[in-house]
Amino acid sequence: MTGETTYLITAKTIGRGNDELGAILMRSLIKNLVSAEAAPHAVVLMNGGVQLACEGSELLEDLSRLAARGTAVLSCGTCLDFFHLKDKLATGEVGGMAQFVELFAAHHVVTIG
Q1: Which CATH architecture group holds 5-112?
Q2: Which residue of 24, 54, 55, 87 lies most exposed, with the fewest beta carbons within 10 A?
Q3: Cross-strand bridge partners of residue 94
Q4: Strands 5-9 vs 93-95: parallel, antiparallel or unpaired
Q5: Using an 8 Å Cβ cutoff, are 72 and 43 in contact?
Q6: Domain residue spans of the chain
Q7: Dihedral of the CA atoms 25, 26, 29, 30 (nearest 10)?
């Protein structure tokens, strides 16, 4: 069962100041989304956030679990191209800005980054 919330994640860490702490916070967020009663409708990854869904990310398993629960895990195609990561995408699907605009208009959006 998915809820009506879309999470927009724009970085591989949460907040500014200490990347180690930011990575811990991001892991905690994703793990808690996986275990929440209602999974989010979508997780949109943009800018540096696309790295979370690519090979080598320690959050791949958790993002895959979200997808298995019905959450759309969408990585920005333009961002993947910019970082030369399109062939490294390991979970979820490639999305585009038009799709994201529709999601943002139809759901409650929480921005993390």
Answers
A1: 3-Layer(aba) Sandwich (3.40)
A2: 87
A3: 75
A4: unpaired
A5: yes
A6: 5-112
A7: -150
